[in-house]
């Protein structure tokens, strides 16, 4: 087993990756570049292709076309157990007949770690997820949140350069989910891990991500930092899906005011959209965040 003394993430690249299931195109020519140590979230509704994309990176699904690169090394024909990627699933995927210790130790043993190294790594991983002393327990003796922490510890134990997370907090209640969001982000920053995170939860994506990939029908609709998606959605689908904007069809005046039912809504911030080509009375779509507006009563 190769030891990684310094936890650093790896660069990951997808080059026009596609996946078809018979006549169905699940992922359609997706290209992405993920920087070392970046937290990238794949966000989209059910059926958008985000989980299939993650499964191809992990090796659990084979790409129909395209190439996946890890630090410049092609992965497409490498089996999952040789990719050395960490994986955390929504439903934990713990071995019920194994103790917490054995669950966390499993990937270390399969990689040929010594007993001393295994003991050290398991203790370190459990301590990192705030479960020291839980090694002798079985999954059935743990709460859902504790089981998810064990799954995270198992993925971290062998210090993978990339951590893949598929809806990992979907089964948790709101309070625990918010707590785990902060802990995962803290661990990712501390270890400088590259994380590819799948969720359909817009708030979760906006809170945790360095960049977000919004997907629809197997394609990338928009890619950028959370503030770009929030403030400058590329189209109505992104604005609606992010859920932070009000979108209406209105008529634009020469002063670019938004008139609704006898009131004038004036943006407090300078408009970033290109309005030079608009004509008075032209029908356009306008999206805004309510925090950026004030209401001026007209007479």
Given the structure, what is the number of helices? 8
Unreliable residue stretches? 1-6, 247-256, 267-273
Largest sheet, in brief, is: 6 strands, mixed
Biggest β-sheet: strands ordered side by side in the sheet: 6-7-8-3-9-10
- Estimate the global geometry from the Cα principal axes: globular
Look at the helices and sheets and give the structural class. Answer: alpha/beta
Cα distance spanning the termini = 76 Å
**Order of secondary-structure elements:** EEEHEEEHHHEHEHEEHHEEEEE
Mean pLDDT: 85
Tell me the helix content: 25-40%
SS strand fraction: 25-35%
Q: What would you report as the Rg, rounded to the nearest angstrom?
A: 23 Å
Number of strands: 15
Question: Top keywords for this entry?
Answer:
alpha/beta; four-stranded antiparallel sheet; 299 residues; six-stranded mixed sheet; 15 strands; globular; disordered N terminus
Can you describe what's shown?
The protein has 299 residues and is of the alpha/beta class. Helices cover 28% and strands 29% of the residues. The protein is built from eight helices and 15 strands. It has helices at 50-58, 100-110, 115-128, 144-156, 174-191, 202-208, 226-231, 236-242, and strands at 12-21, 24-34, 39-43, 65-70, 73-74, 86-88, 162-166, 194-199, 211-216, 219-224, 246-252, 258-260, 263-267, 282-288, 293-297. The strands form four sheets. It has a six-stranded mixed sheet with strand order 6-7-8-3-9-10, with helices on both faces. It is globular and about 75 Å long.
